[in-house]
Design brief:
Helices cover about 90% and strands about 0% of the residues. The two termini are about 35 Å apart.
């Protein structure tokens, strides 16, 4: 409970800084950074709304006043933001792939308007899926459906980045062989590669944090069969949820670590 409070507070601050820096600094509003804005909005929503509900649900359980409605709300909010984070990561991965595969047509293929439409559509789809899962009476069917969606998303992201890795190697070779006279092109390619590595760090963070959640769901029934106690199962479940929420705090930290532009924008905000 204490760990979730800390993650929630720092997550709100870190994601808030990402959003504020993007909105206040015009040079940051490049198409490559726009997806980081949408990811920060998803993450700050998770840490500001879903995680506090989860903490209150745990607190009430510790006080002996368990509220099933509160746990249901916490579960639905977590599912909503988990699904949306996964969809945003897919969009981020595809955007990065297109930027490397078609560097000269990139701005014509992916515009801010199209990106906003894709994110808005994904929110509508995720909200609809979350409501449908809540209405559906079969818990096991919903559970397996959720695992299938998460697994397919992870597989899609991994294969996309395998192809992206090949493109990264090609671009690095192009930078080394580019003549020194074409400084602007070298800088442009270097920034593109740096943005790609930032995206890879964010995707890796999500895969790492969500991997244990998927494994726990898949082997949860097996753990019960092996005679694991209810309290131990609850602890593992809460630890898994906490790890997923941790990703919402790690994402902005990785963006600040990899992007000097975001760091400079935040420094200018406080000067």
């Amino acid at each position: 409970m204490v760990l979730n409070i800390v993650i929630s507070l720092f997550g709100i601050v870190a994601n808030g800084l990402i959003i504020a820096a993007y909105l206040r600094d015009p040079p940051l509003r490049r198409i490559q950074n726009t997806i980081f804005l949408f990811l920060a909005i998803t993450d700050i929503s998770a840490t500001a709304f879903a995680q506090p509900v989860f903490v209150v649900a745990i607190l009430r359980k510790l006080l002996g006043d368990e509220d099933c409605l509160l746990w249901s709300l916490s579960s639905n909010l977590m599912m909503l933001f988990v699904f949306q984070s996964l969809v945003t990561i897919v969009i981020l991965s595809l955007q990065t792939f297109v930027s490397l595969a078609y560097p000269y047509q990139y701005l014509q293929i992916i515009t801010k308007r199209r990106l906003k439409m894709a994110v808005a559509f994904s929110w509508g789809l995720v909200i609809t899926a979350t409501i449908a899962l809540e209405i559906h009476p079969h818990i096991k069917v919903n559970l397996y459906f959720t695992v299938c969606i998460v697994t397919l998303t992870i597989i899609t992201v991994v294969f996309t980045w395998i192809w992206t890795y090949r493109l990264v190697a090609r671009h690095r070779k192009a930078i080394k062989t580019t003549k020194t006279a074409s400084t602007h092109e070298v800088v442009s390619k270097t920034k593109l590669l740096r943005s790609t590595i930032t995206a890879l760090a964010v995707v890796s963070s999500l895969l790492g944090c969500y991997f244990f959640g998927v494994c726990f769901i898949l082997f949860g029934i097996l753990l019960k069969t092996l005679g694991i106690t209810r309290d131990t199962h609850l602890i593992l479940s809460n630890a898994t949820i906490t790890l997923m929420y941790l990703n919402s705090f790690l994402n902005p930290c990785l963006v600040f670590w990899r992007s000097s532009d975001f760091r400079e924008a935040v420094k200018n905000m406080f000067n």
